[in-house]
Amino acid sequence: MAEWTFWGCLPFLVAALITDLKSMRIPNWITLSGLLTGLLAQGVINSWHGLLRAFGGAAVGFTVLLIMHLIGAVGAGDVKLFAGIGAWTGMLFTLQVVMYSVLFGALIGWLIVLKRREAVSRSRKIISRISGFILWKSPFLLKNNDSELLKFPFMLAVIPGSICAYLYF
After folding, report:
1. Where are the transmembrane segments (predicted)?
2. In a domain, 118, yes or no
3. Domains identified in the chain, total number
4. What is the largest CA-CA distance in the chain?
5. Does residue 55 belong to any structural domain of this protein?
6. Cα–Cα distances in Å, from 55 out to 89, 140, 153?
């Protein structure tokens, strides 16, 4: 990944952070403009090779976050945003951003749970569901109710995840 790709992607991440903090949503004008400018920039600067890298990165970012969306971990705006991140930065960097963002998201989630003093009750529910899944082999036992999900702006995890990926790539 060239350094300019991270800096080109950064304004879209900052815009997404601001809107996610305000409304827990990332609007399409941010995600689609990030995707299209990433494809355009890669195509103009690196020709067909860059365009292929951009499409590959967008596909990987979209697919991985779509799976996370289907299990209820992230919103649809995050899925589209990661397609834009992938278009700007390519597959490997995007996967690293996902990995670091999930780690930061887990840390933020546990900090929220500890602050609310829900750690014991949530841990019991997790152990109960996993035990039920092991005993009964039913994936429906792992599914959370929507009211039980812990929600916070995922961009709070994506920004430090992106910075860590940049520093360690």
Report:
1. 26-45, 52-71, 91-114
2. no
3. 1
4. 55
5. yes
6. 10, 35, 27
Q: pTM of whole model > 0.90?
A: no
| Structural domain containing residue 26 | 3-110+155-168
In a domain, 98, yes or no: yes
pLDDT in tens, the chain (169 residues): 689 999 999 999 999 999 999 999 999 999 999 999 999 999 999 999 999 999 999 999 999 999 999 988 899 999 999 999 999 999 999 999 999 999 999 999 889 888 888 777 767 776 777 777 677 766 655 555 555 567 899 999 999 999 999 999 8
Identify the CA nearest to 152 among candidates 97, 108, 114: 108
Distance between CA atoms of 169 and 158, rounded to whole angstroms?
16
